[in-house]
Design brief:
By secondary structure, the protein is mainly alpha-helical. The protein has one domain. Helices cover 47% and strands 9% of the residues. It has a two-stranded antiparallel ribbon. A two-stranded parallel sheet has the order 3-4. The two termini are 30 Å apart.
Length: 215
Protein backbone atom coordinates (compact mmCIF):
# COMPACT_ATOMS: atom_id res chain seq x y z
CA UNK A 1 0.00 0.00 0.00
CA UNK A 2 1.42 3.39 -0.98
CA UNK A 3 1.59 6.05 1.69
CA UNK A 4 0.58 8.67 -0.89
CA UNK A 5 -2.73 6.84 -1.32
CA UNK A 6 -3.26 6.75 2.44
CA UNK A 7 -2.52 10.45 2.75
CA UNK A 8 -5.08 11.24 0.07
CA UNK A 9 -7.73 9.01 1.64
CA UNK A 10 -7.41 10.40 5.15
CA UNK A 11 -7.89 13.94 3.84
CA UNK A 12 -11.31 13.06 2.42
CA UNK A 13 -14.03 12.34 5.00
CA UNK A 14 -16.04 9.21 4.36
CA UNK A 15 -19.61 9.67 3.12
CA UNK A 16 -22.23 10.98 5.51
CA UNK A 17 -24.08 7.68 5.13
CA UNK A 18 -21.08 5.67 6.35
CA UNK A 19 -20.37 8.04 9.24
CA UNK A 20 -23.97 8.04 10.44
CA UNK A 21 -24.44 4.30 9.90
CA UNK A 22 -21.22 3.50 11.77
CA UNK A 23 -22.28 5.65 14.73
CA UNK A 24 -25.71 4.01 14.82
CA UNK A 25 -24.07 0.58 14.69
CA UNK A 26 -21.73 1.58 17.53
CA UNK A 27 -24.62 2.71 19.75
CA UNK A 28 -26.87 -0.28 19.03
CA UNK A 29 -24.08 -2.83 19.45
CA UNK A 30 -22.75 -1.19 22.62
CA UNK A 31 -26.16 -1.07 24.33
CA UNK A 32 -26.87 -4.66 23.29
CA UNK A 33 -23.50 -5.92 24.51
CA UNK A 34 -23.76 -4.03 27.81
CA UNK A 35 -27.10 -5.73 28.47
CA UNK A 36 -25.92 -9.18 27.38
CA UNK A 37 -22.61 -9.05 29.23
CA UNK A 38 -23.84 -7.34 32.40
CA UNK A 39 -23.78 -10.61 34.42
CA UNK A 40 -20.24 -11.34 33.17
CA UNK A 41 -19.06 -7.85 34.08
CA UNK A 42 -20.62 -8.15 37.54
CA UNK A 43 -18.84 -11.46 38.16
CA UNK A 44 -15.57 -9.96 36.89
CA UNK A 45 -15.92 -6.95 39.19
CA UNK A 46 -16.61 -9.15 42.22
CA UNK A 47 -13.69 -11.46 41.37
CA UNK A 48 -11.29 -8.51 41.07
CA UNK A 49 -12.45 -7.04 44.36
CA UNK A 50 -12.23 -10.33 46.28
CA UNK A 51 -8.83 -11.42 44.97
CA UNK A 52 -6.82 -8.23 44.72
CA UNK A 53 -6.94 -5.05 46.82
CA UNK A 54 -7.55 -1.83 44.94
CA UNK A 55 -9.83 -0.36 42.32
CA UNK A 56 -11.96 -2.45 39.98
CA UNK A 57 -11.77 -0.20 36.93
CA UNK A 58 -8.45 0.89 35.48
CA UNK A 59 -8.56 4.37 33.93
CA UNK A 60 -5.90 5.72 31.64
CA UNK A 61 -5.49 8.72 29.37
CA UNK A 62 -5.34 7.65 25.73
CA UNK A 63 -5.01 9.38 22.38
CA UNK A 64 -8.24 9.38 20.39
CA UNK A 65 -9.01 10.75 16.94
CA UNK A 66 -6.53 13.44 15.89
CA UNK A 67 -4.75 12.86 19.19
CA UNK A 68 -7.65 14.11 21.34
CA UNK A 69 -7.12 12.88 24.90
CA UNK A 70 -9.81 10.77 26.60
CA UNK A 71 -9.98 8.40 29.57
CA UNK A 72 -10.19 4.78 28.50
CA UNK A 73 -11.78 2.23 30.84
CA UNK A 74 -10.72 -1.37 31.46
CA UNK A 75 -11.17 -3.92 34.20
CA UNK A 76 -8.00 -3.87 36.27
CA UNK A 77 -5.84 -6.88 35.47
CA UNK A 78 -2.68 -5.94 37.35
CA UNK A 79 -1.78 -5.17 40.91
CA UNK A 80 -3.12 -1.77 41.95
CA UNK A 81 -1.21 1.48 41.43
CA UNK A 82 0.34 0.42 38.12
CA UNK A 83 0.32 3.56 35.97
CA UNK A 84 0.34 1.76 32.63
CA UNK A 85 -1.21 -1.67 32.21
CA UNK A 86 0.01 -2.03 28.66
CA UNK A 87 3.74 -1.53 28.59
CA UNK A 88 6.94 -2.62 30.30
CA UNK A 89 9.81 -0.73 28.73
CA UNK A 90 13.25 -2.05 27.81
CA UNK A 91 12.47 -5.67 28.63
CA UNK A 92 13.99 -8.30 26.32
CA UNK A 93 10.78 -10.34 26.23
CA UNK A 94 8.55 -7.37 25.40
CA UNK A 95 6.95 -6.66 22.05
CA UNK A 96 9.08 -4.58 19.67
CA UNK A 97 8.27 -1.03 18.64
CA UNK A 98 7.03 1.77 20.91
CA UNK A 99 4.42 -0.55 22.44
CA UNK A 100 5.61 -3.27 24.80
CA UNK A 101 3.74 -6.29 26.09
CA UNK A 102 5.44 -8.83 28.29
CA UNK A 103 4.49 -12.48 28.36
CA UNK A 104 4.11 -13.79 31.91
CA UNK A 105 4.17 -10.23 33.28
CA UNK A 106 4.54 -10.61 37.08
CA UNK A 107 2.29 -7.59 37.63
CA UNK A 108 -0.77 -9.39 36.23
CA UNK A 109 -3.05 -10.97 38.82
CA UNK A 110 -4.45 -14.50 38.49
CA UNK A 111 -7.90 -13.11 37.73
CA UNK A 112 -6.27 -10.60 35.40
CA UNK A 113 -4.81 -13.39 33.28
CA UNK A 114 -8.28 -14.85 32.79
CA UNK A 115 -9.78 -11.46 31.97
CA UNK A 116 -7.09 -10.78 29.39
CA UNK A 117 -7.25 -14.23 27.86
CA UNK A 118 -11.00 -13.88 27.34
CA UNK A 119 -10.90 -10.13 26.53
CA UNK A 120 -13.41 -9.49 29.32
CA UNK A 121 -11.10 -6.74 30.57
CA UNK A 122 -12.06 -4.70 27.48
CA UNK A 123 -15.83 -4.70 28.13
CA UNK A 124 -15.90 -1.37 30.05
CA UNK A 125 -14.78 0.29 26.82
CA UNK A 126 -18.36 -0.08 25.61
CA UNK A 127 -18.98 3.00 27.78
CA UNK A 128 -16.24 4.81 25.84
CA UNK A 129 -18.04 3.89 22.62
CA UNK A 130 -21.38 5.20 23.90
CA UNK A 131 -19.68 8.45 24.92
CA UNK A 132 -18.27 8.82 21.41
CA UNK A 133 -14.59 8.59 22.36
CA UNK A 134 -14.19 5.22 20.66
CA UNK A 135 -15.83 3.04 18.05
CA UNK A 136 -16.45 -0.70 18.12
CA UNK A 137 -14.09 -1.04 15.13
CA UNK A 138 -10.87 0.90 14.70
CA UNK A 139 -7.15 1.07 15.57
CA UNK A 140 -6.33 0.53 19.23
CA UNK A 141 -5.89 3.76 21.23
CA UNK A 142 -2.35 4.19 22.53
CA UNK A 143 -1.27 5.51 25.94
CA UNK A 144 -0.03 9.09 25.68
CA UNK A 145 3.61 8.12 26.30
CA UNK A 146 3.49 5.78 23.29
CA UNK A 147 1.87 8.11 20.75
CA UNK A 148 4.14 9.14 17.90
CA UNK A 149 3.55 11.78 15.23
CA UNK A 150 6.91 11.62 13.46
CA UNK A 151 5.75 9.56 10.45
CA UNK A 152 2.79 9.69 8.10
CA UNK A 153 1.83 6.15 9.07
CA UNK A 154 1.53 6.99 12.75
CA UNK A 155 -0.42 10.19 12.01
CA UNK A 156 -2.72 8.32 9.63
CA UNK A 157 -3.86 5.83 12.27
CA UNK A 158 -4.99 8.78 14.42
CA UNK A 159 -7.27 10.09 11.67
CA UNK A 160 -10.13 7.80 12.73
CA UNK A 161 -11.72 6.97 16.07
CA UNK A 162 -9.89 4.24 17.97
CA UNK A 163 -11.73 0.96 18.41
CA UNK A 164 -12.23 -1.95 20.77
CA UNK A 165 -11.46 -4.41 18.00
CA UNK A 166 -9.88 -4.16 14.57
CA UNK A 167 -7.69 -5.86 12.01
CA UNK A 168 -4.84 -6.10 14.53
CA UNK A 169 -6.98 -7.98 17.04
CA UNK A 170 -8.33 -10.49 14.52
CA UNK A 171 -4.87 -11.07 13.04
CA UNK A 172 -2.93 -12.09 16.14
CA UNK A 173 -2.79 -9.09 18.51
CA UNK A 174 0.41 -9.00 20.56
CA UNK A 175 1.92 -11.86 18.55
CA UNK A 176 2.35 -9.48 15.61
CA UNK A 177 5.41 -7.22 15.21
CA UNK A 178 4.76 -3.49 15.54
CA UNK A 179 5.40 -2.80 11.84
CA UNK A 180 2.73 -5.31 10.78
CA UNK A 181 0.32 -3.85 13.34
CA UNK A 182 0.77 -0.39 11.80
CA UNK A 183 0.24 -1.73 8.27
CA UNK A 184 -3.03 -3.35 9.32
CA UNK A 185 -4.18 -0.07 10.87
CA UNK A 186 -3.26 1.79 7.68
CA UNK A 187 -5.19 -0.69 5.56
CA UNK A 188 -8.25 -0.09 7.72
CA UNK A 189 -7.89 3.70 7.53
CA UNK A 190 -7.66 3.59 3.73
CA UNK A 191 -10.40 1.01 3.12
CA UNK A 192 -12.84 1.39 6.00
CA UNK A 193 -16.44 0.63 5.12
CA UNK A 194 -19.49 -1.01 6.66
CA UNK A 195 -18.60 -4.20 4.82
CA UNK A 196 -15.10 -4.25 6.30
CA UNK A 197 -16.46 -3.37 9.76
CA UNK A 198 -18.93 -6.28 9.64
CA UNK A 199 -16.18 -8.63 8.44
CA UNK A 200 -13.98 -7.62 11.39
CA UNK A 201 -16.89 -8.12 13.80
CA UNK A 202 -17.43 -11.65 12.53
CA UNK A 203 -13.71 -12.42 12.79
CA UNK A 204 -13.55 -11.01 16.34
CA UNK A 205 -15.62 -13.86 17.79
CA UNK A 206 -13.20 -16.70 16.88
CA UNK A 207 -10.23 -14.44 17.68
CA UNK A 208 -11.53 -13.88 21.22
CA UNK A 209 -12.37 -17.55 21.70
CA UNK A 210 -8.90 -18.64 20.55
CA UNK A 211 -7.17 -16.16 22.87
CA UNK A 212 -4.29 -15.83 20.38
CA UNK A 213 -1.95 -12.97 21.26
CA UNK A 214 -3.93 -12.03 24.39
CA UNK A 215 -1.49 -11.43 27.25
Amino acid sequence: MRLETIEMDIDIERTTFYSVAKRIMDIVLSITLVILTAPIMLIAAIAIKLTSPGRIIFRQKRAGRYGKIFTMLKFRTMVDNVDNEDDILNHPDGQNGPVFKLKDDPRITKIGKILRRTSIDELPQLINVLKGDMSIIGPRPLPLNQVRFDTLAERARLSVKPGITGLWQVSGRADLPYEEWIQLDLYYVAHRSLRLDLWILLKTIPAVLSGRGAY
